[in-house]
Design goal:
The protein is mainly alpha-helical. It has one helix at residues 4-54.
Length: 72
């Protein structure tokens, strides 16, 4: 009977590790979903900016270095 005890311990350890791995996988999946939503939003924003630029709605780029300081 003592020979099966180590097997029971090993199985328990494997079940614990599998449980942690399942939790990690779920958290990583949530990260991937959130990142894909961000990518989709950025893609839409880029498409919108491209459309505005092609319609002539884009404003000319101005560097903040070209602007006078606020105390003028």
């Amino acid at each position: 009977m003592s020979s099966t005890f180590p097997i029971d311990e090993r199985l328990t350890e494997l079940e614990i590790k599998a449980s942690f791995m399942e939790d990690l996988l779920e958290r990583l999946d949530a990260v991937i979903v959130r990142q894909q939503q961000q990518i989709d939003g950025l893609t839409r924003e880029i498409a919108h900016l491209k459309q505005n630029a092609s319609n002539g709605e884009a404003t000319e780029f101005r560097s903040l270095r070209d602007a006078p300081p606020p105390h003028y």
